[in-house]
Amino acid sequence: MAVSANSGNVIAKYLPVYFVLLAIAAIEFFLAYRNFSTAGLVRILLFLAICSAALGLMYFMHLAHEKRSLFLSLVPAAIFVLLMLNMIWSDSIRLLHMRPFAH
Amino acid sequence: MSESEMAVHGHGGALMEESPYAIPSHKLTIWLFIISDAVTFGAILFAYGYLRVATPDWQTPFRSASIINAAIMTFVLITSSLTMLGAVDASKAGDRPKALRFLASTMVLGLIFAGLHIHEWLGLFDEGIKLSSGLFGQAFFSITGLHLLHVITGVVVLAVVARKYSSGSLTPGHVETIGLYWHFVDLVWMFVVPLVYLTNIAR
Fold first, then answer.
1. Cα–Cα distance between B49 and A92 in angstroms, integer?
2. Do B194 and A66 touch (CB under 8 A)?
């Protein structure tokens, strides 16, 4: 197989995304030592983690360059299931305060 | 469906319907696996979140050394994603030696990550925090253990793919498929660090 002259350029192409991911991680570590309430800190860190994940998904995993039908099949379904999980877990905690577990 | 909508693939000129996603089947398979695995991690992270918030005397054992260790692990894993991108690109460009070098770099970084992770665990064991020592131990070791299992599995599969790719029995498409898995492991870590480490810093 012929070797393309462009081989290896991908590192340079994705370096900005790499540095943004490192920067977001650095911000997370910095914020963790600030005086936030636990709930406030979790909200901020989750937001930053979702931003990191979106960057990784779109650029490192090339979802931004795949056919749109793949994106539309995978991402909304995954988000829907995760949101449903969130509902079910909160119910599982509430269940502890209901019969037959409640005392 | 008209014949124009059909594509000829495979052996013997068999007519097969073109993929609606325009990707090979193994790539679609790994995407479906990633989604199901994301739901698995989502479930345990949601469970962890509820436990964390609902438990007033939650342990916060991570001192500076652990947080620095987690920062290095994060750096190593994000860098391994970059080397994985290099491997995928070099394999697509037909540069087999370069692809193999990038795959080897990714494996080394994965092993460094696993080593740091085990070092962190041993430190916690010394402090008396174990899988059997209450909710924090159970949650922490379940989440990080599942992630570490994914990393170790990834390193093993990377080694197998690299070996078979070097002998020519696997294609650049297969390198891309394991690349997607590796990036996913990286993405999961981006949630594990803030939720499991950074919200449990010793004050």
1. 13
2. no
B23-200, CATH topology level: Four Helix Bundle (Hemerythrin (Met), subunit A) (1.20.120)
pLDDT at position B151: 97
CB contact under 8 A, B85 and A7: no
The pair of three-digit structure tokens given for residue B190, joined into one six-digit string: 């981006």
Over residues B105-118, the pLDDT tens digits come to 999 999 999 999 99
Identify from B18, B46, B68, B105 which residue to disrupt to test chain A contact, counting A C-beta atoms within 10 A and taking the largest count: B46
Q: Per residue in A63-100, pLDDT tens?
A: 888 888 888 888 888 888 888 887 777 676 666 666 65
Of A28, A31, A53, the CB nearest to B187: A53
Where exactly are the structural domains of chain A? 1-65, 66-103
- Report yes or no: B23 at the A interface, CB cutoff 8 Å: yes
A34-70 pLDDT, tens digit each = 988 888 888 899 999 999 999 999 999 988 888 888 8
